[in-house]
Design brief:
heterodimer; A: mainly alpha; 83% helix; B: mainly beta; 2 domains; eight-stranded antiparallel beta sheet; seven-stranded antiparallel beta sheet; 3 helices; 25 strands
Chain lengths: 52, 357
């Protein structure tokens, strides 16, 4: 019984890992969709300091 | 009798760009109206920066305020012809100044981010929904900027700018406009013509109506000089002679050269690097012996007798002279620079461009 419970816990952990991976993938896709930061932003960061 | 007012006096200012990976030229390769347009080119490598055609007022355009832009951005427009690649194309930058303080703001409209060029002339009128980025100095002297492109023209006044801690800019007045390429990559060309500012369309032509027109590509002014600048044009002409005549019956140009010489009074590493043909500058170290010959982009700016700008544009040149620098007690060390123009494939080697507005 105990062995089975352990297996279930391990499987749940794997499922959770998968979920985490899925969330990360979505974040990455969103970043690609937004595109790279305009380089003129870096000009003002250098001119005035900081990031906005 | 002559006209004293036509006599050109005063200094010329030399601006250089190196590496030569971005150019702004007056070009007759494409034109929407007339024979010329402003050609903006990025080679695909090197530093980002503004490669632009600029229109500027000698005084502030008092009626052209930020509020006026937001009220009707559609009467700010330009015609464009983009090379057939996908990239960030022309940005419409408006510089506003506060008539009551030293405050200023560069408001950049970016309607053509990540856009595929179609190699055909098209009009772009600014719209309330176009994205903007901006940066400047507030009336209080504090800097502000926002370049995440989360705002539109419609929000220029009602959005973050008028929020807590941000300046009220509605009554700030227009000083200049730039149509620019910024990112260095990909390699692309944009021709820009017929720029409309608040309902008035300015032609991009030699002798056109565009006020204070300037073509520039994030260049650096070399600073103080000693005994000014000399530009020299020279030719070699071969006579065509025949046995039966004593005079030549014709002549042909066999070679032409334009050289610019100047003694730079500011002995900066930047100036040293530009004067020495084969040098390599990296931060605070300048190396000789790599054997590379660098090309530069030069612009010389005068004020002509009528009080308007005259530019000599040399899109491709090399430093070709010896550099002898003498250090003596209580005397300045000048850096002599000699630039020689090279021909580019499609454009003139040297263009002298006179503004009439």
């Amino acid at each position: 019984m105990k062995k089975k419970e352990k297996e279930i816990e391990e499987m749940e952990a794997i499922v959770n890992e998968d979920e985490v991976v899925e969330i990360e993938a979505e974040v990455e896709l969103e970043e690609v969709k937004l595109g790279p930061k305009p380089e003129k932003a870096l000009y003002y960061e250098n001119l005035f300091g900081g990031k906005k | 009798m002559g006209t004293i007012a036509n006599v050109l006096v005063g200094n010329a200012v030399l601006y250089l760009r190196e590496p030569n990976n971005a150019k702004a030229e007056m070009s007759d390769q494409q034109a929407y109206a007339g024979s010329y347009s402003a050609k903006l080119y990025k080679s695909g490598s090197g530093n980002a920066g503004s490669t632009h055609v600029e229109l500027a007022s000698s005084t502030l355009w008092t009626a052209k305020t930020v509020d006026a832009l937001v009220a009707d951005p559609t009467d700010y427009s330009f015609y464009y012809y983009y090379s057939a690649v996908t990239g960030n194309f022309v940005q419409y930058e408006l510089k506003y100044e506060d008539p009551d303080s030293d405050g200023w703001m560069e408001l950049t409209v970016v309607p053509h981010q990540n856009t595929l060029g179609l190699a055909t002339w098209t009009k772009k009128a600014l719209a309330l929904t176009d994205k903007i980025g901006y940066g400047g100095i507030a009336e209080s002297g504090v800097s502000f900027f926002d370049w995440d492109l989360g705002d539109t023209i419609a929000e220029a006044v009602t959005g973050p700018l008028s929020g807590t801690g941000t300046p009220a800019v509605g009554d700030w007045q227009l000083k200049r406009v730039r149509l620019e390429l910024w990112e260095s990559s990909p390699e692309r060309t944009a021709y820009v013509d017929s720029i409309e500012i608040d309902g008035t369309t300015y032609t991009i032509e030699p002798g056109g109506t565009a006020p204070g027109m300037k073509l520039d590509s994030a260049s650096t002014e070399v600073g103080y000089s000693d005994e000014g600048l000399t530009i020299e044009y020279s030719t070699e002409i071969e006579d065509i002679r025949v046995n039966e005549e004593t005079f030549p019956i014709g002549a042909a140009i066999t070679s032409e050269d334009v050289t610019i010489t100047m003694n730079l009074a500011e002995s900066s590493m930047y100036n040293l690097d530009k004067a020495m043909a084969g040098s390599l500058l990296s931060g605070s170290i300048l190396k000789l012996g790599a054997g590379t010959l660098k090309t530069l982009n030069a612009r010389i700016e005068y004020t002509n007798p009528a009080g308007y700008k005259r530019h000599i544009l040399i899109p491709n040149c090399i430093a070709s002279g010896g550099v002898a620098m003498q250090s003596r007690r209580n005397e300045k060390t000048v850096v002599p620079i000699t630039l020689r123009a090279l021909k580019t494939a499609s454009e003139a080697a040297v263009t002298i461009l006179e503004n009439v507005a």
